[in-house]
Backbone:
C-alpha cells in the first residue's frame, strides 16, 4: 500500500506494482463517487496548490474535484493574472506559495521537465499534470483504468495510439505505462508526426496505414493534432490529415471486429475523430473523464500518505 | 497463547448473538446489517447465515463497509483499502454494525462517520464478537457482545476463521 516514489513526475519512474496499487486504489474511490454523499474526510488537513501555467479544462477540473471530494484545502493558480507577468521565476513563485504551508503541488507547465526541477528544489509532493511534450501521467493512468474496466485486463491487449505522437505527452506516458503492464503498443500516424527513433527507443512498431493499425488493435487511443506545439508545417492541411488518419463510422464498420475508441480530449471533431465515431457505443471517452476523478483521488491519497511520513 | 473461545464455543456464541438480534428485531423489516472490513466480514457472514435460517433471506439487507477513508490516523501511514458494498439506502433504517473485536472504539467511530455518507439511519446498534473492556479511547459500547474480556495493551486478540486461517477459534496472544 505504499508507492515507491514521493512524487508523481512521470510513468517512467513508476514500478509496475505502483501502477497496480494506483489502479486498485482508484477502484475503491470510484465506489465513493457513486455514493449519495461523494465526499470523504481523508485529506482533511492537507493543503494542495494547483499551479496551471498552461490552459486546461478537464485536467484542472478533475484535479480540483478530486481534491474537494477528499476534503483537502485547495488553492488555484493560473499563469494569467499572476505575478508571472511581472517577471517572477517558477522557483520563486512556488517557494512563495510554499511558505504559506502547502503540502502538495499539482503542476502543468509548458516546459518539459519543469516538475522534475521543482521536485529537486522544494519539499512538497509534486504531481505532474502535464509538462511540455514529456509526460502526462494521470492521463495514462486513467486511460489504463478505463481499458481495464472495459476489457478486464491490460495484459496482452493491443493498443494503438493514433495521431500526433511527436508532440504528445499523453502518447509517451501511455507507451511507458502499457509496456510496464504487459500490453502491446503500436503507434500510427503520418511519418512527420512520429519520432524517427521510436522503434529503437521503445521497441514498438510503427504503422503508417490507419486501416491496418485498426485491424490489429483492441483499443485505439486517438490523439489531438496539437497545432499550438507545431511551429512548422508537418502536413499539408487538416482536411488531408482527416482523409488519411481521421476515424469515422464508415471506417469502424468496415473493420472485422469492434474496437474500443478512446480520446484524451479536447476532440477536434471532424479532424482526428468524427462525431459518429466519438459519440458511438464503441467510444469510452466520457467514461475516461469520469474515471479521471477516481484516478486523481487515488494518486493524491497515496502521495499524501507519503508526504506525511516525513 | 490462551484460547478464549474454541471452535464449538464460537459457533454457540454466534448463534446466541443471532438470536438476540432476532429477539430485538423480530421481523427484520426496517433493518440492515453492515459488516466492517476487513475482518468483521467473516463474523457478519456467519450472523447473516444464521438469521437466514430463521427468516426469509430476501428480507435481509446486508452490506460491507470499509472505513479507511474515515480513519483518524492517516498521517501515521496508509492502510490497505477494501471493498465497500452497500447497494441500498440506509435512510431511516436501523443499522446493525458488525465487527469482530471492539478495542479502542476508534474503528467504530470511523464507521459511524462513514455510514452517514449512505443516508441518515434511524438507529445504529453495535454487535461485537469480542469486547476488550476497559481499553476504550472513545465513549463507545457494544449493544451485543459475544464475550467480554479484560486485557492489557501488550496483549493481542486474534479471531481465526476457517476460510482465511484454516482453523476457527479466538486466542489471546
Residues:
Amino acid at each position: 500500500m505504499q508507492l515507491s516514489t514521493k512524487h508523481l513526475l512521470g510513468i517512467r519512474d513508476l514500478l509496475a506494482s505502483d501502477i497496480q496499487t494506483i489502479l486498485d486504489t482508484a477502484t475503491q474511490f470510484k465506489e465513493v463517487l457513486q455514493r449519495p454523499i461523494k465526499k470523504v474526510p481523508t485529506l482533511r488537513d492537507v493543503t494542495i496548490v494547483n499551479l496551471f501555467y498552461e490552459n486546461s479544462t478537464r485536467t484542472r477540473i478533475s484535479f480540483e474535484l478530486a481534491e474537494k471530494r477528499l476534503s483537502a484545502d485547495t488553492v488555484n493558480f493560473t499563469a494569467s493574472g499572476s505575478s508571472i507577468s511581472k517577471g517572477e521565476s517558477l522557483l520563486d513563485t512556488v517557494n512563495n506559495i510554499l511558505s504559506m504551508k502547502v503540502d502538495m503541488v499539482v503542476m502543468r507547465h509548458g516546459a518539459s521537465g519543469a516538475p522534475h526541477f521543482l521536485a529537486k528544489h522544494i519539499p512538497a509532493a509534486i504531481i505532474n499534470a502535464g509538462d511540455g511534450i514529456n509526460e502526462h501521467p494521470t492521463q495514462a493512468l486513467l486511460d489504463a483504468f478505463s481499458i481495464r474496466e472495459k476489457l478486464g485486463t491490460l495484459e496482452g491487449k493491443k493498443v494503438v495510439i493514433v495521431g500526433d505522437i511527436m508532440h504528445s505527452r499523453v502518447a509517451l506516458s501511455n507507451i511507458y505505462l502499457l509496456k510496464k503492464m504487459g500490453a502491446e503498443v503500436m503507434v500510427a500516424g503520418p511519418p512527420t508526426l512520429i519520432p524517427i527513433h521510436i522503434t529503437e527507443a521503445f521497441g514498438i512498431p510503427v504503422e503508417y496505414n490507419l486501416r491496418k493499425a485498426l485491424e490489429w488493435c483492441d483499443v485505439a487511443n486517438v490523439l489531438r493534432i496539437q497545432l499550438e506545439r507545431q511551429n512548422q508545417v508537418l502536413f499539408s492541411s487538416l482536411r488531408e490529415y482527416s482523409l488519411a488518419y481521421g476515424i469515422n463510422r464508415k471506417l469502424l464498420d468496415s473493420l472485422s471486429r469492434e474496437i474500443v475508441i478512446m480520446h484524451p480530449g479536447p476532440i477536434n471533431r471532424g479532424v482526428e475523430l468524427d462525431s459518429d465515431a466519438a459519440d458511438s457505443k464503441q467510444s469510452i471517452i466520457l467514461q475516461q473523464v469520469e474515471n479521471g476523478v477516481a484516478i486523481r483521488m487515488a494518486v493524491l491519497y497515496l502521495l499524501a500518505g507519503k508526504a506525511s511520513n516525513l | 497463547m490462551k484460547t478464549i473461545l474454541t471452535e464449538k464455543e464460537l459457533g454457540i456464541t454466534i448463534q446466541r448473538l443471532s438470536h438476540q438480534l432476532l429477539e430485538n428485531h423480530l421481523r427484520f423489516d426496517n433493518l440492515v446489517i453492515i459488516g466492517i472490513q476487513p475482518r468483521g466480514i467473516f463474523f457478519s457472514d456467519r450472523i447473516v447465515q444464521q438469521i437466514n435460517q430463521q427468516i426469509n433471506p430476501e428480507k435481509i439487507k446486508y452490506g460491507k463497509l470499509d472505513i479507511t477513508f474515515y480513519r483518524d490516523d492517516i498521517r501515521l501511514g496508509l492502510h490497505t483499502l477494501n471493498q465497500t458494498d452497500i447497494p441500498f439506502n440506509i435512510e431511516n433504517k436501523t443499522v446493525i454494525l458488525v465487527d469482530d473485536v471492539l478495542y479502542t472504539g476508534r474503528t467504530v467511530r470511523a464507521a459511524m462517520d462513514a455510514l452517514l455518507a449512505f443516508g441518515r439511519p434511524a438507529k445504529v446498534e453495535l454487535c461485537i464478537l469480542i469486547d476488550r473492556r476497559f481499553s476504550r479511547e472513545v465513549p463507545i459500547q457494544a449493544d451485543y457482545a459475544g464475550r467480554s474480556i479484560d486485557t492489557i495493551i501488550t496483549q493481542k486478540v486474534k479471531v481465526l476463521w476457517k476460510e482465511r486461517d484454516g482453523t476457527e477459534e479466538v486466542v489471546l496472544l
Notes: The interface with chain A takes residues 66, 68-70, 74-85, 89, 113-114, 116-119 of chain B (CB under 8 Å). The CA atoms of residues 94 and 140 of chain B lie 18 Å apart. The beta strands of chain B are 2-5, 31-36, 61-65, 94-102, 123-133, 144-150, 157-160, 169-172.
